[in-house]
Design brief:
The complex is a heterodimer of chains A (133) and B (125). Chain A has 133 residues and is an all-alpha fold. Chain A has one domain (23-132): Fumarate reductase/succinate dehydrogenase, transmembrane subunit (3 helical TM bundles of succinate and fumarate reductases, Up-down Bundle), CATH 1.20.1300.10. Helix content of chain A is 75%, strand content 0%. In chain A, helix 1 packs antiparallel against helix 2 (57-67), helix 1 (24-55) crosses helix 3 and helix 3 packs antiparallel against helix 4. Chain B is an all-alpha fold. Chain B has one domain. Chain B has helices at residues 6-10, 21-46, 52-59, 62-90, 94-122. In chain B, helix 2 (21-46) packs across helix 4 (62-90). The radius of gyration of chain B is 20 Å and the shape is elongated. The termini of chain B are far apart. Classes of the chains: A mainly alpha (133), B mainly alpha (125). Chain A binds chain B through residues 1, 6-7, 13-15, 33, 36-37, 39-40, 43-44, 46-47, 50-51, 53-54, 56-57, 60-61, 83, 87, 90-91, 93-94, 97, 125, 128-130, 132-133, and chain B through 1-2, 4, 9, 27, 30-31, 33-34, 37, 40-41, 44-46, 48-49, 51-53, 55-56, 59, 68, 72, 75-76, 79, 82-83, 86, 89-90, 110, 113-114, 116-118, 120-121, 125.
Chain lengths: 133, 125
């Protein structure tokens, strides 16, 4: 099990992006990972908001004030997009899990489709949010 | 200097026990996350511009509290697995171990704090 320095050969590791020509499908793979990390961080906001709701009206209003500020809205808008994009990416993976949708035409179509759909759905969600208030 | 590869060193030493469990749990939580995400979006849309009182009375409903707790558990489980893969790709040696432990601690903390807050509201805060 022990790895001595001599046999630790510096081989290239899996994310070896430098040698590839940037492609849409590759970018989508990276974006899926980045949106995942964004959502990981966004759970802090969700937990904070729930704590604020449990803490009482005064602290809740303080947290709401931050979250609904211009910067707060920008962050939440980004988190909404990340959530929708990552979900659509997940649906794509479900299809791939069945062994379907691997031909280049379908892959490219789904890549473009999920970019457009994620942005459109994010705007739709925020339009409803402003509409119902 | 040895020319043996890591794969060669582990061959014939039996299975690493966990097998495809990481993948399976990742997909299982991913499936659960689809309806739970729809629930979460509905939840936040229904509370757009809501006061503290409205938020609390919404979370007090068993259906909402159940949905939120299920969402938290499934999300946290899913992100624990996902972020671990990211860490394993970029961090190596001691740093990897520290980040993997930190990731699990962070996920557990998010889950505990969130669920506690939901239960506190549910049982009358």
């Amino acid at each position: 099990m022990s790895t001595t320095p001599q046999n630790k050969i510096k081989r290239p590791l899996s994310p070896h992006l430098q040698i590839y020509k940037p492609m849409l499908t590759m970018t989508m793979s990276i974006v899926h990972r980045i949106t995942g990390v964004i959502l990981f961080l966004a759970t802090l906001l969700l937990a904070w908001w729930l704590i604020a709701a449990a803490a009482g009206p005064a602290y809740f209003d303080f947290v709401e004030g931050i979250l609904t500020s211009l910067l707060g809205r920008f962050v939440l808008f980004g988190a909404t997009w990340a959530l929708i994009h990552h979900t659509l990416g997940g649906l794509k993976h479900f299809l791939w899990d069945t062994g379907r949708g691997f031909d280049l035409k379908t892959v490219e179509l789904m890549a473009k489709g999920s970019i457009i759909a994620s942005i459109a759905l994010t705007f739709l969600v925020w339009a409803i949010a402003y509409g119902v208030r | 200097m040895t020319m043996r590869t890591p794969l060669n060193k582990v061959r014939h030493h039996g299975s690493a026990k966990s097998g495809t469990d990481h993948f399976w749990q990742q997909r299982l939580t991913a499936i659960a996350n689809v309806p739970l995400t729809l629930f979460l979006i509905w939840f936040f849309l229904s509370l757009s511009g809501a006061s503290h009182g409205e938020v609390v009375s919404s979370i007090k409903q068993p259906f909402v509290a159940f949905g939120l707790i299920a969402t938290i558990i499934s999300y946290v489980w899913h992100m624990r697995l996902g972020i671990q893969v990211v860490i394993e790709d970029y961090a190596h040696g001691n740093a990897k171990i520290i980040f993997v432990i930190g990731n699990i601690m962070f996920c557990a903390l998010i889950a505990l704090v969130s669920i506690f807050a939901i239960l506190k509201i549910s049982f009358g805060a």
